[in-house]
Structures are given as structure tokens and as C-alpha cells.
């Protein structure tokens, strides 16, 4: 029989309770120490008052925040029309790179070249080149819009990454699944569509979510070619008010979207790891 | 004419010769067991018959027709030859019934509604009636393997290949899968089975082939091969396997 004390706990439980209390105490103490150090030490810096006035000015923040939020709607819109295009193009490129049909070999090379090029060039450069370059051809309205070509630059860049993630998912499905599908007489296309892809896509959803969180932030790069989205709007306020607080406001808005999304992606990833083990 | 005829089949992986001139005949309705140590070439031979592997030399005939012809479309052949794998290989994202219906739906263009009665009947026949809408990870190993057998049968194959289908199972689950094989044999299915289940081979097989290093060392009726093996390699293998 197990020995228990008055509270009905085994000696193992008592021991583990004590350990848990101790580690909570240490964690709480060290967190408090770091926090106090920051709060006390940073304001002791010689330029703190100036930084506070120009980055953390509450009046400016309250005045500009609603307008920034308004401008952020444009970021969301650009994100919303780019994301589905990225999923589709990324999937097509991944499939092109996986094809074994010799007639489609050019597609395979093209797919490889595409992912190499667009993953190799900084996003902001692609935005500049496509966003300024193509309207420079003197296209009639609305085809000279920076919205179209800026979005295209994002779509092309992100599809390259998304395609590689899809491809890694396709390759992670064990060959025995392909063998089983083939042994049933399924065609290669059917085997991909019904057996491989559904498993591959499910596996890469957390990784793809991280890509789309990054995309949400990179929409701000379009400000360089014209659209007055949140980053550009913050820049306008900065010049108008000679104060950097609008940038902090913009950062707050981005964080409000990206932190929950990141937490959710981490949660999905952890859940998947648990299921696989 | 034999249902399946193998003539001097040779299969190499690089420098490694896995099937080294294998001759084999399987008559209609026969159950042929391939026995031998792991790596003897049993599984590879089955994969070659199902055209999952291409052979370097020799011929494989199905009803006298050469199915190992280079350049032949393998899909129509695979529909006639069902295969079941050691690790079940069910599609994990589909229910048992969806696993079974996928190939008939896509290949024979039948609707789910049209397939449901015959698929239900198959599930009932193999004691899986209440498991149709379960996902593979909700099934025991024995149930998964029986679903895999049902999945292959749903294509109405003329021949079934079984690749060590009980090797991954807990001992108490082996029996239920072997019962399925007995049922199939009664129905007249032509079957080739790579197996380590010597007791089953001895009791149910029409012919047993002992393979070693990619060659058929000895073949014969189980009553002969298990009782009076002639070749010293067969004797040594059986002495160890039957201990």
C-alpha cells in the first residue's frame, strides 16, 4: 500500500509539489528582476527624454491612430487578394516541379528557375522592379496602377516560397502511399490529387501560416511605390508632426494582427507534433 | 495455361541482384506461398508481378500475356492484380469506406451510391460492418489490414498478392487476418503470399516456394516441402523456422 499523508498525497506528489513551487518562485523572481532593470535603467539613459517625446508621445498617438487604422484596411485588402493567388500559383509551381512526364520537362525547369530567382532577390527589389518597371511601359489606365504590379511582385515572391513548402510536404508523404495508390490502378494524377496532396497540404499548414504572417508585414513594402497604406500614412504623419510616434502606432497595429496569428500557427505546429509522436 | 507464369525473372538494384532468374507458375485458384529469410527476394518478386518494380530480364505472363513488356501501360494490369502490403498503407485521411471506394470511383467511374451496397457487403463478409466510417487510426492493426484487403478486392482483381501482411501485427491479431485468406481461398481467388507464417503455409498452401538469395531453391506441395525437404538450405531454414 502507498503511504499517504493527511492530504491524501503520495510522497512522490509532495516532492513534485515542492519542486513546482520552487521553480515558480525562481521564474517569478528573475522576471521581476529583469523588468525592474529595464524600467529603472532605460530612463537613466541621457537621451531618454527626447526619445520619449518623439516616439512615445501620447497626444500624437491618440490623434493619428484612427487614421492609421483606416490606412491599415488597404494592407488587409492587398493581403486578401494576394493570398489566394499565392496559394494557387505556389501549388501549381510545386506540382510542376514534381512532374515526371517528359513532355512537361520544360515546366519543371521553369519551376526550378522561378523558385531560384524569386527566392534569391530581396522582396523590396522585386517590388521596385515590377512596381516601377511594368507601369513604365506606358500602359493605359487602370493597367498602370501600382496596386496591381505591387501585388504581383508580392505574389511572385511569396509563391516561390510557398511552392517550396508545398513541395517539401509532397515529398514527406511516404512512397508506400504512392505504391498503394498505384497498386489499385489509380493514375499518377489521381494518386496525386486524392492520396498525396491532401496529406501533404495538411502537414504544411502551420509552415504556410508563418509565410502568410510574413506576407502581412511585407505588404508595407508597397508603400515604396505609391499606395498610401499604413506605413506610408505613418510617414506622412511623421513629416507633418515632426514626431515618430505614428511609426510606433503602426507597429502596434501590425502586432495586434501578427501575434495572435503566430500563436495560432505555433499551436497548430505543436498539435501536429503531438499527433505524429 | 497457368494464371501467372514467371520465366527467368531478374531484378537488380544497382549491383545487388534481388531476383536472380526466378521461374514460377501459379495456377488459377491456387494459393502459392513464398517463404525464406528476410532479403531473399520475396517482397521484390511480388512488387515485380504488380509492376511496381520493372524487371531487368525475363518475362512475367498473366493469362499467357506478357505484362513485363517494356513500355506497357501498367495501370490496366494493376487493376487485375490486387496487392496488400505489410504496413497496410491505408490512406490515413480517408475513412475505411472511402479508402475502399476511391479506386473503383476513379478507375471504373462508379458513384459512391452505386458502390455502397457492394462495399457494404464486402465489409460485412470480413467482419468489418461497424468499421466502415472509421478512420485508419481508429482501427486495430488487424482491422486495418482487413480493410486493406477489402480495398484491393473492391477492384475485382483476378489475382491477389500479399506481402508479409501479418508481420506487423500483434500475435493475437494474426489469426483474424489469416481467416480472411482462408475465406478468399474458398472463393477460388488466385493468391501469392510472401509469409513467415509457416503453420499457415503448411495448412493452406497448394504450393510452397523456398527462396534464398533471389533464387527458388526448392518448391513443392507443403506436405512434401515441410516434411521431407531435399535441399540442405531448405532443411536448415525450416529447422530454424519451425523450432
At a glance:
The complex is a heterodimer of chains A (277) and B (243). With 277 residues, chain A is mainly alpha-helical. In chain A, 79% of the residues lie in helices and 0% in strands.
Description:
- The complex is a heterodimer of chains A (277) and B (243).
- Chain A is built from 10 helices and no strands.
- Chain A has helices at 11-41, 48-55, 58-98, 105-120, 123-133, 146-172, 175-183, 188-218, 230-241, 245-276.
- In chain B, the strands form 2 sheets. In chain B, strands 6-7-8-3-9-10 form a 6-stranded mixed sheet, sandwiched between helices. In chain B, strands 2-1-4-5 form a 4-stranded antiparallel sheet, covered by helices on one side.
- Helix content of chain B is 37%, strand content 25%.
- Chain A binds chain B through residues 176-177, 179-187, 190, 194-195, 198-199, 202, and chain B through 47, 50, 52, 74-76, 78-79, 81-83, 85, 87, 89-93, 102-103, 106-107, 148, 151-152, 155.
Assign an overall shape of chain B.
globular
Number of strands of chain A: 0
**Named CATH topology of chain B:** Rossmann fold
Largest interface: A-B, 17 and 26 residues
Which class of the largest domain in chain A in CATH terms? Mainly Alpha
How many structural domains in the coordinates of chain B?
1
SSE blueprint:
The complex is a heterodimer of chains A (277) and B (243).
Chain A: H1 11-41, H2 48-55, H3 58-98, H4 105-120, H5 123-133, H6 146-172, H7 175-183, H8 188-218, H9 230-241, H10 245-276
Helix pairs in contact in A: 3-4, 3-6, 3-9, 3-10, 4-6, 5-6, 6-8, 7-8, 8-10, 9-10
Chain B: E1 4-13, E2 16-26, E3 31-35, H1 42-49, E4 57-62, E5 65-66, H2 74-80, E6 81-84, H3 96-107, H4 112-125, H5 141-153, E7 159-163, H6 171-186, E8 190-194, H7 198-204, E9 207-212, E10 215-220, H8 222-225, H9 232-241
Parallel strand pairs in B: 3-8, 3-9, 6-7, 7-8
Antiparallel strand pairs in B: 1-2, 1-4, 4-5, 9-10
Helix pairs in contact in B: 3-4, 3-5, 5-6
